[in-house]
């Protein structure tokens, strides 16, 4: 790096009075000396600019690497979450099959116990942002339900869900799985909600 103090020390101070005349060769020598100093300053500036540009390039590369690593870790975490959620839903499905079987049976003592567990499980899911989609006695919605079967019961309005075969699940605003349902349709009327 260019040291101004060192450059100034190279030259002795001349006492120049107003009566003393400056010789043209002295002036030429001073101009050459200043030009030399300016050239060294320019070279040093170019060198320092190159180092600075190199440092900026390294920082940008590190930032890109860090962002790339973050995206990879985020994607892996999302995949792990999906795998965990899939396993959890498999357990919920097995429990739901038991719930639906016992609920249709004649054993009232088991019905109460299994209904209590079913509600508790729904509350636990809800506390983690997972919403169970059912909809029995509600209007069918294409966004949240898949019609597995259509029946015609005159006493029930068209488009109303008669039975939920398998619950769907939603995490925050994302539908994980639509509920599988049986829908009522009377006289060809369409009662589907978007």
Topology:
Layout: H1 4-9, H2 24-104, H3 108-127, E1 130-133, E2 145-151, E3 161-166, E4 168-171, E5 174-177, E6 179-184
Helix pairs in contact: 2-3
Task: Please provide a written account of the structure.
The chain contains three helices and six strands; from the N terminus they run αααββββββ. The protein is an alpha+beta fold. It has a domain of 64 residues: Nucleotide Exchange Factor Grpe, Chain A, domain 2. Helix 2 runs antiparallel to helix 3.
Feature tags:
alpha+beta; Nucleotide Exchange Factor Grpe, Chain A, domain 2; three-stranded mixed beta sheet; 3 helices; 6 strands
**Distance N to C terminus:** 72 Å
CATH class of the domain at 131-194: Mainly Beta
Average pLDDT over all residues: 84
Task: Briefly note the CATH topology name of the domain at 131-194.
Answer: Nucleotide Exchange Factor Grpe, Chain A, domain 2
Low-confidence stretches: none
**Tally of strands:** 6
Q: How many strands, which pairing sense, and closed or not: the largest β-sheet?
A: 3 strands, antiparallel
């Amino acid at each position: 790096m260019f040291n101004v103090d060192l450059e100034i020390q190279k030259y002795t101070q001349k006492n120049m009075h107003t009566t003393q005349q400056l010789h043209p060769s002295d002036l030429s020598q001073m101009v050459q000396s200043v030009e030399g100093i300016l050239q060294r300053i320019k070279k040093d500036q170019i060198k320092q600019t190159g180092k600075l540009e190199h440092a900026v390039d390294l920082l940008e590369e590190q930032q890109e690497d860090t962002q790339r690593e973050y995206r990879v870790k985020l994607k892996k975490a999302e995949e792990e979450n999906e795998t965990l959620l899939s396993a959890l839903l498999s357990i919920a499905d097995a429990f739901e099959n038991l719930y639906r079987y016992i609920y249709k049976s004649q054993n009232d003592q088991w019905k109460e116990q299994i209904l209590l567990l079913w509600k508790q499980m729904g509350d636990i899911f809800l506390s983690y942002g997972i919403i169970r989609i059912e909809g029995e006695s509600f209007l069918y919605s294409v966004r949240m339900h898949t019609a597995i079967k259509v029946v015609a019961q005159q006493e029930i309005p068209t488009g109303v869900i008669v039975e939920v075969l398998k619950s769907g699940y939603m995490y925050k605003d994302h539908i994980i799985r639509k509920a599988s349902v049986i829908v009522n349709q009377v006289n060809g009327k369409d009662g589907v909600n978007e």
